Amino acid sequence: MKLEIQRDAKRQRFDHGWLKTAHSFSFARYFDPDRMGFGALRVINDDWIAGGAGFDDHFHDNMEIITIPLSGTLEHRDSLGNVGQIKPGEVQHMSAGYGLLHAEYNPSPTEAVSLLQIWVLPKELAIKPRYAQKRFDLDAKPNQFVTVVAPDHQAGDALPMNQESVFYLGRFSEQMKTELKPLGPNHGFYVFVIEGGLEAAGETLEKRDAFGMSEVDALTLDIKPRSFILVMDVPMLG
Q: What is the pTM of this model?
C-alpha cells in the first residue's frame, strides 16, 4: 500500500479578493514538482467566488472537468450553447475534448459561491466536447456513497466521463465503516473530506484533509458522524 496524506494547512492558498482558492496540486502560478496530481487526477481547486464575480470566457481542451457546488449558485455558459445554473446537490461534468470556451460566474450580487473544481486527464484525446449536469439527492440515500460520475460504458444513473474513473459522494449522519473496491488493478483512491472527518489506514483526517491510496485491494473508511466525503477512484497511469 502507498499512502499520501495532504492536510488542509498544506494546500496552497491564494486570495485575489473576488476569488479565494486552495490548490491541492500544482495549478496556474503554483508549481510544486511533488504535487503534480495523483494518477489521472490532475487538479482539485477549492474555490470561493464573491458575489457578482467570476471567470470570463476561457479555453479548455483534453480534460475532464467536474464541478461540485457546496454553497451558493454558479452560473455557466459555454461555446456549445449551454447556459444555466448549478447549485449544491448538483454535479457538473464537461469533457473538453478538442476544445471549448466556457465562463463561470456568481449571479448573486451579495452571496458568495463555494465549489470544488476537479480535473481528470481523459482516456481518449480530441473527442467531441460535451456537457452535462445532474442533481443527486444524497439525503435520500444517507450513510452510503452515491456514484455521481463513472466511465462512459458503465455510467448508469451517474454522469458519464471519458476516463476509467468513478466519483463517489456521501453524507453520513452516523458513525459508519464502509469499504470500496477499486475499479481496476492499477487504480488508486483519492479521498477528500468536505465536512466532518474519518479514519483510514491508521490516520485521522478532518475537514478539507485528503489522502491518496494506491496498491490496495480495497479502501476501508471509518467515517465520523456529520461528515460529507468525496472519493475518487482513478487509474494510476504508471
A: 0.97
